[in-house]
Amino acid sequence: SAVVAETRRAYARVQLEQPSVTRVAIAFELQSEFDPLECDEGFSDGHQRCTYGTRNNGRAIIGQDLVALGSDSSAPVDRRGVALDYIQYQQNADGIYDRGMVTLEPGIVECYIPFEVIDDRIPEPSELASVELTEIRNGLASLGNDNSGVTANLTIADDEPVVTLETEAGGQRDSLNVDSNRTYVARLTGERQGEVKLRLADVQGASASLGSQYSANTGNPNTELVFPMGVDEVSFQVTANAYANAPDEVDDLFGQLGSDNPFQNGREGYVRTAADTLLRLNLNRLDGPWSFGTFIPTDLTLGQGGRLFVAGYDAGTNNQVQVRVFDQTDSLIGSPIEVTDSSTALTPTEVFVDVAERQVTVETSRVTRYDVAVGFTSDDPAIGGGAVGGDDAIMGLYRYNSTSEVYEPLWSDLYRIGTSGDDVVRWVGLNPGTGFIAVAGETSGTWPNQSRSGGVDAFLARIDSTTDASNLVPSLAWARQAGSVGNDQVVGGSVDAISPLLFGQAPGSVDGTANTGPFYFSGSASADLSLTQIGTDASETLRDGFYAGGNHWLIGDAQLTFETEESEDDASQLALARTVSDSRSGFALGYGSGAIIRKAESFNDQNDAANDRLNTGVWFDGGVVVGGSTDGVFREGNTAPAGGAAVLARGNGDPENEPYRNWRTQLTAAGASVLALANYRDDEIVALLEDGSGRFVLLFSPEGRLLNVTP
Q: CA 628 to CA 620: how far, in whole Å?
């Protein structure tokens, strides 16, 4: 029996470079790469997995998706209703109008070829076809530069309803603990004529399997979501099951929910999806406390397949400087990297760490190297080849040995640099390209070829490793120094920009700027110092800084709130607007190149009555997450605890205020503060906190939901 479907007319334009002096007749034909004999493995001609199989995905079917003229369509007319008599349609061997001829009279330079898109209820991706001008039947003209023909590609966008899978806050990714479940929402947009369905399935690339490590409860057979007519939103539950990784597998597993395209393709009554992966779900295995005993962590970062590198010192072994490496269940991987000898008694010091995955060529093979850089401060003359001044900067470089599965030192000894004054390390970075180390800190001395500005300046130095025989030898490539007349503080740095960056805080003007407070600069061996200082109020205090997403991010707090507005000098640029507040509130400011403000976010408590302090920030899933503490009500519904409380927040200045990208978390335990943050593959926020009992790690979902408990 015949299948009747409505069609919608569209047009392809034919244009001559110059008018013809004679009548020109040009043949055209609709074409597609669709091949009914190209089937998915295990299927043969005539099966759905041929017509709508993987190989034919995105290929229009002439006669089913597209025709030149419908069998019952009226002749095409122009906007005045006059018939287009310059076009003639022809049928192919199957009786389908898929070709024809257009005739251009002398002096005419363009015309339109009408064709028709067939409307159906089959969910499909955008499909490709083409209209080809095949030959000149009459007149003087050429097709293309070499007269070989002209092809215009056609894209058919599906107009069936589209479904998205989201968290209840509207996000497309989440983290849930094993042996727990959460509710998610499927939302449908677009017109439809009746009930439609979506069959859930794994999307390629996930490490967890639907029905094994996690399951979806839709309330219907075959994990199908059903949208009755008039219902555009349905809920379903996902349960994460307990699982065990292989011994060498560090990462959590993750699922990627999407549609069962092999089943749905070509079937009416099913909906297409807005993307291949609709919902990414990290299956978190750690819901218990993560503490460290006598080891005092001071910095952390993630790398090498999900390993968490935690730097600090062990108060139980003479404050030995260590880096401990953990998997995602807080299990220690191997022995700690012992940066200093346990027999050497040290003064407790902040230790900083960075890691890099480096692709290098060894002989003719590409090799992946996993390097670890460590930096700390010491005045002990026995460390790193003897004292340079008072406190000096001490550096170490390590590489993972895949055979012994340990991190081995690349230098014969720790490397010590400094001035005749005190030099205190505040940040260390490891460049993944050439492998140089950048170190930023504070100095009361004068670095080579530099000038001292005041009491304590900021310094930024680069350390290279060169080969001497078979050994790597560290050397100071350059050091740059800047500051105000007072005592400056360094709060962070970055090796993610073109040149290494330092972020700091000064009580006055740095390097002759007209501003005060927060500043940053990039360093190199010879170029002039590129310094930006942005503060105008003495209350503006910078506590962290980094480079991400093309911006220099400044994290801190002030007795001000910030927002961007149109610049009075240049309407195409933004300006930073400050408003005095009754209490201190946090800020996250994003500056582009040329010190142009691009983003400004303020984090104030509900009543503008508390002191909100932001200590740290991290780039996470296209935005900035910040952490610190408050002594008030930072999140609606909380109470102000005695001794303050730790806070975590995300804001991206979005006027639509999407909940999954704009949220706040305030812990109920009193006396805690967030010290540092790290990003676990955009699936979890890893936070280092401190309270009266010590330091510990907490994990949060992409929307700020606490995943494990405090010690």
A: 16
**φ, ψ at 366 (rounded to 5°):** -85, 130
408-436 burial, b for 16+ CB within 10 Å, e for fewer? ebbbeebbbbbbebbbbbbbbbbbbeebb
> Domain spanning 7-156: which CATH class is it, in words?
mainly beta
Name, in order, each residue with C-beta under 8 angstroms of 246's C-beta and a sequence gap of 6 or more: none
Task: Give the β-pairing of 162-166 and 272-273.
Answer: parallel
Q: Provide CB contacts within 8 A for 90, sequence distance 6+.
A: 97, 99, 100, 101
For residues 554 and 544, give the distance between their C-alpha atoms in angstroms, rounded to a whole number.
6
Q: Give yes or no for residue 695 having a pLDDT over 80.
A: yes
Cβ-contact 265, 52 below 8 angstroms:
yes
Asked if the model's pLDDT at residue 345 lies above 60, the reply is: yes
**Local confidence band at 324 (pLDDT 50, 70, 90 cut-offs):** very high
Q: What is the pLDDT of residue 135?
A: 75
pLDDT of 710 > 70? The answer is yes
The band of 7, judged by pLDDT with boundaries at 50, 70 and 90, is confident
Q: What six digits make up the tokens of 333?
A: 């991987």
Q: Phi first, then psi: give them for residue 612, nearest 5 degrees.
A: -105, 120
Q: Which residues are bridge partners to 448 per DSSP?
A: none
Integer Cα distance of 508 and 252 in angstroms: 47
Q: Which pLDDT belongs to residue 146?
A: 67
Closest CA to 308 of 288, 324, 320, 291: 324
Q: Is the pLDDT of residue 614 over 70?
A: yes
Q: Does residue 280 contact residue 307 with C-beta atoms inside 8 Å?
A: no
- 272: pLDDT confidence band, cut at 50, 70 and 90? confident
| Residue 238 structure tokens | 């996902």
Cα–Cα distance list, 441 to 67, 301, 565, 667 (Å): 70, 19, 34, 32
Cα-to-chain-centroid distance, residue 134: 47
596 alpha carbon, distance to own chain's centre: 22
Residue 545 binned pLDDT confidence (cut-offs 50, 70, 90): very high
Measured CA to CA, the distance from residue 562 to residue 599 in angstroms comes to 10
* Tokens linked to 566: 């149109």
HSE, side-chain direction, 13 A CA sphere, residue 323: 31
What is the structure's pLDDT at 1?
Answer: 44
Which phi-psi region, left, alpha or beta, contains residue 575 (left: φ > 0; alpha: ψ -120 to 50)? beta
| Helices within 208-299 (DSSP H only) | 261-264
Q: How many CB atoms lie within 10 A of CB 67?
A: 20
Q: Residues 433-490: pLDDT tens digits?
A: 999 999 999 999 999 999 999 899 999 999 999 988 778 999 999 999 999 999 999 9
Burial label for 487, CB within 10 Å (0-12, 13-18, 19+), is middle
Lowest mean pLDDT of 44-58, 495-509, 670-684, name the range: 44-58
Q: What is the pTM of this model?
A: 0.87
Strands of 448-515, DSSP E:
457-468, 471-482, 489-494, 501-506
Tokens in use for 535?
Answer: 């503060």
Domain with CATH 2.60.40.2030 in the chain: 7-156
| Residue given tokens 């170029």 in the structure block | 527
Closest CA to 398 of 379, 382, 383, 413: 413
Element (H, E) at 51: helix 48-51
Q: Write the burial class of residue 3 (CB in 10 Å: 0-12 exposed, 13-18 middle, 19+ buried).
A: exposed
Q: For the segment 157-166, what is each residue's pLDDT rounded down to a tens digit?
A: 766 788 999 9
Candidate ranges 37-51, 106-120, 137-151, 382-396; pick with highest mean pLDDT = 382-396
- Alpha carbons 691 and 449: distance in angstroms, whole number: 43
Region 162-284: CATH code: 2.60.40.1510
Instruction: Judge contact between 55 and 45, C-beta under 8 A.
Output: no
| Identity of residue 310 | V
- Domain limits, CATH 2.60.40.1510, in the chain: 162-284
